[in-house]
Amino acid sequence: MGVIQRQTIKGSLVNFFGVFLGAISTLFIYPLNWELYGTIQYWIATAVLLTPILRQGSTSIINRFYPYFKSNNIKGFLGFVFIVTGITITATTIIIIIASIVYSFINKSEINEIINNNSIFIYCLTILMIVNNILRLHSANAKRITIPNIIKNNGLKVTIIVIVLLSYYNIVDQERAKSILIIFNLLSVLILFIYLKKLKFLDLSGFNKSSLDKSIKKEMFRYWYFGGLNYLGVILAYKIDTFMIGNMLEKQNVGYYSTFLFLCNMMIIPMTAINEISSPQISSYFNSNKIQKIDELYKKSTQNLLTVGVLIFMLIWFNIRNITSIMTNGEELIPFINLIIFIGISKIFDLSTSINNLIIVHSKWYRINLLFLLLMAIMNLSLNYVLISKYGILGAGIATTISILIFNVIKSIFIYKKLKIQPFNKKSGYLYLITILVLILGPVIENIKIINDWVSLIVIGSISSLIYLVAVYFLKISPQLNELVDRKLISK
Length: 492
Hints:
By secondary structure, the chain is mainly alpha-helical. 81% of the residues lie in helices and 0% in strands. The protein starts with a helix and ends with a helix. 44% of the residues are buried.
């Protein structure tokens, strides 16, 4: 078993454990305080939005240029990344402060009204998230993503669970919640430093700028500039919905939306692991001009991700009524149940094109991705503003679905035009037909009750999963699944 496959499986197992943890908290803990949970999600969304503004594309060079440092035996790669990031953050911070002073002068307001305790907290949270992200991405260069994923996903979930539970017992308020989030991120940084040092991958010293050719410096600068704008475009395209809901509606609506988002994010758990471990691999393939290898990875990733994603979407949609009935205060989500359709379909669009964003970002056409992202960001911002105003959080789901569909179609066409590779085949068509069938049957099956909600969830989930997996096997949609079944079951 190869490193990518092994780390993907480990990463997926870790993420699925995180899903189990998230499921328990989403069903029984987060609803104890919708407002605080929504506020925390809003803080995180705001920090994520600020991240590319503060650091630009300094972290984008990690996967892109690590192969160059490694092949040329240049020391101190991680130290170089931190130097670039530190300079970028310092310069950007100065610009933000000057802009705030000018804004307060023009509007005749006090500067402390702009730079308040909440903005300082968001700023510190953003800095810590940037450092965590650098260390996590560098771990992927070492082909190690499991421990960083445990910290990022499961650690954050546990932290939010603790905050909400303590708030329920009136031990923690919003101000103390901020302190707990900062402490968690500080501990995350410390653990990742220790982890990289143990791997002997903490190459902080020894960098000499004279070891870089003038041409590579220019390429790094271009990638730093466009990489930052690209990431900002990604945030505006994929994360702006939560931020805009928090600004346009009451904070508990962020909690409602985040709950549905969590359910549908289970569909893309393997995609997260594949992206993290594939990014340096795709960069390496481009450096050695192995387009056929990229094509193989493209097709295999799409087929497997879509197979899993459609299964999870089916389980959620068939059982959404049982899920809300089991949840603490789940009746508050009933008016927004159809949000599952839009968010779920948007995830299927993403899975259908899997690693297309990585292919463009690591190619020589990486700058064109900025244009695609800016177009999508403008469209997503506009659609979210109009549709949230009219339909509330349901409008955010509709806006995201439309934007992601158009975005992925454009990217896929571009990749095919330039590299003559695409991820679709007849088997993908089978999965799309199954998805349509699931959407049609959902309203009927979700109202079936067998003894109680728990039994209904288990029975409906088990039967529908069995039927789906049998269909996938006989249609030979996933070669990996067929190989596993043949080896483990039929051969015996």
